[in-house]
Structures are given as structure tokens and as C-alpha cells.
Amino acid sequence: ETGVTQSPTHLIKTRGQQVTLRCSSQSGHNTVSWYQQALGQGPQFIFQYYREEENGRGNFPPRFSGLQFPNYSSELNVNALELDDSALYLCASSLVRGTGGNEQFFGPGTRLTVL
Amino acid sequence: LAKTTQPISMDSYEGQEVNITCSHNNIATNDYITWYQQFPSQGPRFIIQGYKTKVTNEVASLFIPADRKSSTLSLPRVSLSDTAVYYCLVGDMDNQGGKLIFGQGTELSVKP
Asked: Residue B103: its pLDDT value, please?
């Protein structure tokens, strides 16, 4: 196990609703990243938070937003849910060391289904 | 950001050595090469990371030629539990905002 936890495990929402997914990073890590993984595809980078500020964003609309808290836990919020938002949402934590290579530890994911 | 190309699928048998090669022709000077393993409905798991030459850990070896335009993940004596999707990633984790670029991955099927 990586020490990264996510909640809830599964979630069902209807189109237009809002959802909040939560992640608890591995102890000592200062960075958290979120990914969306559609069925049969590789994970797609949504954004990363470093020391409570957004530090890089992928090709996702503004209705995808996030927060990182002082204890390095994090939230992913998605507004105005669409059917295509149905996916496995992954959280990954890491310790940025400034050396150019660092390992990201992934949580088990939250399976979101939008009806 | 360097793009990677790897085989979509591979088959093997228990006890064999499996080599998965990844092409990354546009790799930059500061880029590292990282491999992840993913089982269905689970998050990817870090396998190995390298910059050049050869890296070995308890589960795999990573071979990187001098020009760094490709890399080969070697899994010794695979078992049924190694059936998974393997992703090759290239990037400078600190300077690109930690954005891991996952491709399609290689779906490895290990048969008895």
C-alpha cells in the first residue's frame, strides 16, 4: 500500500450535480496531483497542488477545481457534472525534491458514475 | 513534453522474462524515464525510474541506451500476478508541474 487514501470508493451522481472527492496524501509529501482515467485509457493529468497552490494544470475546464490543505490532504471538486465525467479519479502524492525525478504514489481511486 | 510509444499488448508465460520497450525520441536533457504498473480499478504503482544506463531493483530492471531515445523494462520470471498494464512515462517531474503523461500503456497477459 502507498499510504495514499481516497474517499469515497464509489459515487453515483446525476448530470448537472456537483461532486467533491477527497484524498489524504502520504505522510511527509508536499505535492498532490489529480488524474482522470476513463475506461480503457491511461490516466489524464487534471492538476497538481504544491504547498496549497495550483502548480500545473492539464486540459480540463474550470469546472474542475481543487484545494490542498495545510495537512497535505486535498479535494477535487467538479461542478455541473456531465456524462463524460464518469471515470476513475486518482490522487497521487509526491515529495518534490528539485532533482528532476520523483516518484508519485497513487491512491486506489474513486469511481464516479454520472447518470 | 516527450511522447512515448510502446506496444499495445504482449503475451507471455509464467517463468519467462518479459521485455517491454518504449520509444521516446524527443526526450529532453532533464527528463527521467519512469515505469508504472496498473491493475484493474487500482491506482498505478511505481516500478522503476532511471536517467541513463541501467537501473535494477527488487522487481525489475530498466535499460536505457546512451542516446536515451528508448528504454526497456525487463521483468524477470513473470508470474500470473504480473498480468497488468505497464506505462512508460518521460518527463521532468519538477519543472513540468508534476504532470505525468500516460500513454495507452502495454497490456501484459501472463499465461500458465
From this structure: 82
pLDDT over 70 at B47, yes or no = yes
d(CA A91, CA A68): 12
Q: Can you tell me the distance from the alpha carbon of B70 to that of B66, in angstroms, rounded to the nearest whole number?
A: 9
What per-residue confidence (pLDDT) applies to B72? Answer: 97
| Cα distances (Å, whole numbers) of residue A9 to A23, A90, B1, B26 | 11, 11, 32, 38
A-B Cβ pairs (cutoff 8 Å, strict): 81
Residue A44 vs residues A16, B29, B92: alpha-carbon distances, Å = 22, 24, 17
pLDDT digits (tens, 9 = 90+) for B72-88: 999 999 999 999 999 99
In whole angstroms, give the CA distance from residue B38 to residue B13: 19
Q: Give the A-side interface with B, CB within 8 Å.
A: 2, 4, 31, 33, 35, 41-45, 48, 50, 55-58, 88, 90-92, 94, 96-109, 111
Rounded to whole angstroms, the Cα distance separating B15 from B79 reads: 6
- In this structure, are strands A105-106 and A5-7 parallel, antiparallel, or unpaired? unpaired
Which of B31, B41, B100 lies nearest to residue A88, judging by beta carbons? B41
Q: For A103, which of B49, B99, B105 is closest by C-beta distance?
A: B49
